[in-house]
Write a structure and sequence with these properties.
35% of the residues lie in helices and 13% in strands. It is of the alpha/beta class and 549 residues long. The protein folds into 2 domains: 232 residues, 3-Layer(aba) Sandwich (D-Maltodextrin-Binding Protein, domain 2); 263 residues, D-Maltodextrin-Binding Protein, domain 2 (3-Layer(aba) Sandwich), CATH 3.40.190.
């Protein structure tokens, strides 16, 4: 279960508050001196009430009405007055709260942008957590366990302002959209798994002419790719590894460059142009979405596509022919696998590479903030830190209260409990869980939860992990300063549009790659590429200075 993280930039028109993090701590302590238990439960000796904002999920209850959070109140001694904000329109509601400075004690899963911690800190809306780390032992454990995340949490002033969310085991996003090939066709035609572009070309030709789906018709589509929103095909660069480029932005000898401007990209375009000219690349690839690809991939139970790329294969083809698809209640690998990962192709240098889509898989840097108006900041920090304890709290956050929606069986595995008659398990779960997962699931702390769909997706990522090109990856997850963000927002959309248009024209032969390449490169200057690269470079240098790698 993946929680979709909505990213937005809040525009504030208020004057920054003058209170520092230390000053907020001091004034709050004077307002209400409460002894907070740094270890164990309850958190306080006598009941205390805090205020908080949280997003109201469309299919769930308000948090105060959920048995899970009622149980948390009993165990902690902390009552939360929840201000539930509808998911639709949440940006406007949060903007009003911030502009009015009528802050709750803490914000939870209602503000979560990469760049926002710095913005909120500059405006005096949230406090730094560093002075309160003794009340955040679980956050400290995460920072000690995974120090590579520290640069993504620390702001330019050196402070940490937000609680993150991290689920290590469910490492699904780091490989991005993955390459799948029809292994049944390879076996049927007596073909080896291709390892180079030339071998891949020969395989696609065999798919086209060898009737691998045994229909007796010329109906096979050797290779079909997806276009993103607004016909964005710039991401196809992930397949350009044999020519030394896989990233739109890449770091070469400490300098940020654009992958789509590199000589290797030009060489890769020539290969794709060859595929297109010979009918091996589906011409609808430049505009089609997933539903269109899925409709053509299997017709009346017959496979039609030899190679495609998507997040998981069963988004395009039936689950029962997807790589190691497992039923939730049956971990036995499906023996009828047809589509599996094609390892990245090797270039002339013998090197194969694949882009790491994210350096922080399943890591969300900003999910909980303590406001400068917090009456008891130590207690707010301690409450938020509870959810960093994946061993004891994680599965409840994901699935609901133990004994109500799930239990641990005699073998030590978590198993779901049957919902009331007439209520689906999914509805029952939505009514009793916040669907956020724990704020830290490490491999060592995970309960024995049989989420086989997650496990098999992680296995797919593991097949690509050895090929990740980490040395040249640009840290997209790292925050930009406001002036850098303004430059990127001004120029980057136009640059991407330019890349997409020219990629399509080069591959289809509308532009000659050799004759028009210099003109293509020169066009970037007028689009502000130099300014954008300057903003990316500044971000990268701050990242390195903060200890990033």
């Amino acid at each position: 279960m993946m929680r979709r993280v909505l990213v937005f930039m809040v525009t504030l028109s208020v004057v920054a508050m003058t209170a520092t993090a230390g000053g907020a701590k001091e004034s709050a302590a004077k307002a209400a001196a409460i002894e907070v238990n740094r270890d164990g439960l309850p958190l306080v000796a006598s009941p205390v009430t805090l205020t908080a904002t949280a997003i109201q999920l469309p299919t769930g209850r308000a948090l105060g009405d959920m048995p899970l959070f009622q149980d948390v109140e009993r165990k902690t001694g902390v009552r939360i007055e929840w201000q539930m904000i509808p998911q639709s329109g949440r940006v406007e509601r949060i903007n009003l709260i911030l502009a009015s400075q009528d802050y709750p004690d803490f914000f939870w899963h209602s503000i979560d942008s990469i760049d926002l911690p710095q913005t909120l800190a500059e405006r005096g809306a949230v406090i730094a957590l560093d002075p309160y780390m003794e009340y955040a032992p679980n956050l400290q454990k995460l920072l000690d366990y995974s120090p590579e995340f520290v640069p993504y949490l620390r702001n330019p002033d050196g402070n940490i302002y937000s609680f993150p969310m991290y689920r290590q085991r469910i490492d699904l996003g780091s490989a991005g959209d993955r390459p799948y090939i029809n292994y049944e066709w390879l076996d049927r035609l007596g073909l080896d798994v291709p390892e180079t572009p030339d071998e891949f070309y020969e395989v696609l030709k065999a798919f086209k002419t060898g009737d691998p789906n045994q229909t007796g018709r010329d109906d096979v589509i050797p290779m079909s790719l997806l276009a993103g929103a607004d016909n964005d095909i710039s991401g196809w660069i992930a397949l350009f590894g044999p020519w030394g480029v896989v990233y739109p932005q890449m770091v070469v000898d400490g300098k940020v460059v654009l992958g789509h401007m590199q000589p290797g990209f030009r060489d890769g375009l020539k290969f794709f142009n060859r595929l297109y000219e010979e009918g091996l690349l589906d011409p609808e690839s430049f505009t089609q979405g997933r539903e269109q690809l899925r409709a053509k991939a299997t017709v009346n139970g017959v496979h039609m596509v030899g190679f495609f790329r998507d997040y998981v294969s069963w988004l395009v083809v039936d689950r029962m022919v997807s790589m190691y698809y497992m039923d939730f209640t049956d971990p036995t690998p499906n023996p009828g696998v047809v589509y599996d990962i094609l390892p990245p192709l090797r270039g002339r240098s013998g090197t194969a590479m694949w882009p790491r889509a994210t350096a922080t898989p399943n890591f969300t840097p900003a999910t909980g903030f303590v406001s400068t108006r917090a009456r008891n900041p130590e207690l707010a920090v301690r409450w938020l830190d509870l959810w960093m304890d994946g061993e004891h709290w994680g599965y409840s956050a994901e699935e609901g209260l133990e004994g109500l929606t799930w239990q641990v069986n005699n073998e030590g595995f978590v198993e779901p409990l049957s919902p009331p008659d007439g209520v689906s398990r999914n509805d029952w779960r939505n009514q009793n869980a916040y669907d956020i997962g724990s704020h830290w699931w490490s491999n060592e702390l995970l309960p024995q939860v049989p989420q086989y769909g997650w496990i098999t997706q992680a296995e797919m990522v593991d097949k690509l992990r050895p090929y990740f090109d980490d040395n040249r990856r640009f840290p997209n997850e790292y925050f930009s300063l406001p002036d850098e963000e303004a430059i990127i927002n001004r120029y980057w959309p136009g640059i991407l549009l330019y890349i997409n248009e020219n990629m399509a024209r080069f591959i289809t032969g509308d532009l000659d790659i050799d004759r028009n390449w210099d003109q293509y490169i020169a066009g970037f200057r007028a689009l502000g590429a130099e300014q954008v690269l300057g903003a990316f470079q500044a971000r990268y240098e701050r990242f390195v200075a903060a200890g990033g790698r």
